[in-house]
């Protein structure tokens, strides 16, 4: 008999909320204080699952610790989120969930940090990030450590279960003002000597799984909020970055919710079966960051997956609308100088999750009026056609670049006509007129006269093929060849020129501020693979270099280090010989950056490749570091002649001189002479550097 469940995948929920922490004190005198919104979070998530998604109560596993007036939790011992009960519920979930089923796991409570129990993979000074059980005050009680949680999740993924994990907690703390706000974490690192025996798996199994998941064994903190290595095979929504705080706040009356959980439920209250987790994240980022500037939610893993769904959709990435001032007709976006935006750059605003190629779905046009390093303000210009049918712009909506509005971004093109006896009978005038017309229609190109300098030259060679030359007479290697009289050849030619203009702009993007305090903050080194290199074991690296010559399909190492006294958000892009640009670090499909503490370093291993037909090519590793969170995925480009997916309509280019543009357009009055120090220009909040790898085919 066939199991009917195979035809109807099931959804299961594991919900853990902890308001009440039994009396506890860490060695430094700090303690995990009681919270007020965690159980409320879990009860509301349970109500959503039951009423909106019609999930049977038998499909929900729940552990809570509620407060009562006698300073004890009201739940019986078997329902309390102790270490033993939490592990048991995870294992129960793994036993009942079958291939193709989905599980939703939601934790609201304190996050903690403790001296690592696994120095062989974390280092002697390593830290374990952890979920904090209700009875952590008992020195015999154990944390749910990151290595254990990673194993539990990997166990579900290996069973081909679709996993969504929400962590509404943090691993840092601080003072709050008023009685409506609390932080779900503390600053202390627990040095209490606790049992190293795990109920999850043997020590060897835990270490092996962690090394498999984490590309750098000694790495303690990852971009996902400090709890896990790169999320593979599941979706993770974390309340904040590792250095930040996860707040709970009284949004409605005097009853608190976790900020992440509150806005998550607000989004889910208006379900749309075609929205992805990336769309959900953009909404959460705008809602949370606008009210709690020190809480930046994080999304890891399969962001292209539909919310509570099985299928995936292309990512619709662009800048996100972070704030709306309706009376002033202004919007704040999370894009700025570091992305190549300039004063006057023009954007099209769309509802979140919309196909950006659909012009009729635009909400408005916006021009940037105040440029920042990673965020900017723009003034809204309503669309004239059918305004009554377009809703107001709201937080979480998105925008894509229409016009760079920078002369330095516009590439000059010259037509270089070569006479040839082979084509003496052909009238080229119609072709030239078409080229002129199509160049005039794009914002990225400008046709110049024969005696003017040009970035690119268009040539028809002796074989009747279009060629594109650089400023000299060097042919740019573009494939496949393009016959001038082929169908749509002229359109393809202009598209190639636009693509080259964008690629070159990103390649040249730099911060020329000589007084930039981050000038030497970001260190990127290249290394050949050591002879004794083993995957999962940190290599001993010597002789760093800025350039490498390496054979195709061979590996090399990139070391990244934060040399500054500030936390930095780091992203790596690669510019490749097929004229594509893609993000390689962080490597998952939705993360925008990796947070680096002062002095922190990381290493990644990359493997070279070459497009078919290429004997040699150059990969450019371009690294960015910013003070504020930012997204570089909208700088990505497809391969030449490949269609731009919705997520790739976000491509931006650089200003000729970012500091000069800022001085003349943003801070026209300059710095105050009386202060005798430079103004805090946006250029002082980001830095970029790049390295060259030449790839050779035997």
From TrEMBL:
Cite the Pfam families for this sequence: Peptidase_C14
Q: Name one GO cellular component term.
A: cytoplasm
Q: Which InterPro entries match?
A: Metacaspase (IPR050452), Pept_C14_caspase (IPR011600)
Recorded GO MF terms: cysteine-type endopeptidase activity
Ranges for domain Peptidase C14 caspase: 14-300
Q: Which PANTHER family match?
A: METACASPASE-1 (PTHR48104:SF30), METACASPASE-4 (PTHR48104)
- The name of this protein is Peptidase C14 caspase domain-containing protein
């Amino acid at each position: 008999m066939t199991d009917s469940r195979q035809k109807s995948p099931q959804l299961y929920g594991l919900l853990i909320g902890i308001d009440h922490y039994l009396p506890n004190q860490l060695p430094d005198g700090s303690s995990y204080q009681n919270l007020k919104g965690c159980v409320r979070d879990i009860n509301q998530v349970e109500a959503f699952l039951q009423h909106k998604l019609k999930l049977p109560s038998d499909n929900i596993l729940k552990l809570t610790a509620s407060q009562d007036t006698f300073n004890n939790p009201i739940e019986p011992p078997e329902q309390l989120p102790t270490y033993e009960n939490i592990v048991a519920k995870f294992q129960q979930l793994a036993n009942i969930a079958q291939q193709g089923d989905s599980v939703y796991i939601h934790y609201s409570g304190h996050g903690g940090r403790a001296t690592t129990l696994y120095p062989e993979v974390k280092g002697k000074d390593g830290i374990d990030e952890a979920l904090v059980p209700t009875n952590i005050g008992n020195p015999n009680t154990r944390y749910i450590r990151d290595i254990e949680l990673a194993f539990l999740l990997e166990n579900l993924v290996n069973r081909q279960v679709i996993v969504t994990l929400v962590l509404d907690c943090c691993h840092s703390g601080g003072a709050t003002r008023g009685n409506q706000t609390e932080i779900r974490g503390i600053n202390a690192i627990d040095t209490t000597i606790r049992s190293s025996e795990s109920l999850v798996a043997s020590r060897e199994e835990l270490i092996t799984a962690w090394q498999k998941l984490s590309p750098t064994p000694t790495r303690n903190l990852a971009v996902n909020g400090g709890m896990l290595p790169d999320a593979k095979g599941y979706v993770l929504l974390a309340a904040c970055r590792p250095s930040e705080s996860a707040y709970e706040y009284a949004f409605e009356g005097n009853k608190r919710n976790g900020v992440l959980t509150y806005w998550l439920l607000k989004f889910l209250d208006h379900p749309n079966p075609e929205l992805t987790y990336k769309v959900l994240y953009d909404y959460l980022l705008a809602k949370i960051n606008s009210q709690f500037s020190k809480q930046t939610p994080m999304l890891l893993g399969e962001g292209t997956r539909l919310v509570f769904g099985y299928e995936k959709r292309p990512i619709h990435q662009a800048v996100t609308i972070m704030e709306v001032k309706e009376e002033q007709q202004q919007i704040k976006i999370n894009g700025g100088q570091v992305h190549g935006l300039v004063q006057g750059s023009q954007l099209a605003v769309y509802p979140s999750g919309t196909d950006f190629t659909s012009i009729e779905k635009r909400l408005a046009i916006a021009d940037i009026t105040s440029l920042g390093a990673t965020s900017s303000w723009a003034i809204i210009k309503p669309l004239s056609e059918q305004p009554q049918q377009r809703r107001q712009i709201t937080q979480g909506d998105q925008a894509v670049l229409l016009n760079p509005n920078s002369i330095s971004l516009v590439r000059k093109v010259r037509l270089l006509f070569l006479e040839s006896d082979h084509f003496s009978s052909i009238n080229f005038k119609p072709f030239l007129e078409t080229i002129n017309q199509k160049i005039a229609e794009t914002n990225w190109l400008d046709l110049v006269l024969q005696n003017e300098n040009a970035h690119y030259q268009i040539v028809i060679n002796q074989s009747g093929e279009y060629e594109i030359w650089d400023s000299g007479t060097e042919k740019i290697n573009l494939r496949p060849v393009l016959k001038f009289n082929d169908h749509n050849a002229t359109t393809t030619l202009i598209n190639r020129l636009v693509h080259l203009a964008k690629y070159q702009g990103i390649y040249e993007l730099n911060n020329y501020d000589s007084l930039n305090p981050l000038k030497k903050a970001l260190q990127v080194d290249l290394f050949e693979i050591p002879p004794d290199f083993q995957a999962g074991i940190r290599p001993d690296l010597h002789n760093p270099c800025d350039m490498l010559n390496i054979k195709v399909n061979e590996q090399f190492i990139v070391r990244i280090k934060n040399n500054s006294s500030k936390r930095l958000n780091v992203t790596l892009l690669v510019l490749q010989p097929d004229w594509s640009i893609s993000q390689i670090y962080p490597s998952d499909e939705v993360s925008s950056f990796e947070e680096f503490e002062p002095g922190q370093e990381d290493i990644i291993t990359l493997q070279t490749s070459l497009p078919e037909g290429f004997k040699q090519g150059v990969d450019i590793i371009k690294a960015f570091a910013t003070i504020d969170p930012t997204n570089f995925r909208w700088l990505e480009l497809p391969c030449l002649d490949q269609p731009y997916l919705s997520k790739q309509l976000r491509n931006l280019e650089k200003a000729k001189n970012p500091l000069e543009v800022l001085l003349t357009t943003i801070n026209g009055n300059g710095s105050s002479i009386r202060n005798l120090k430079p103004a805090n220009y946006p250029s002082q909040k980001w830095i970029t550097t790049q390295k060259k790898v030449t790839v050779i085919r035997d």
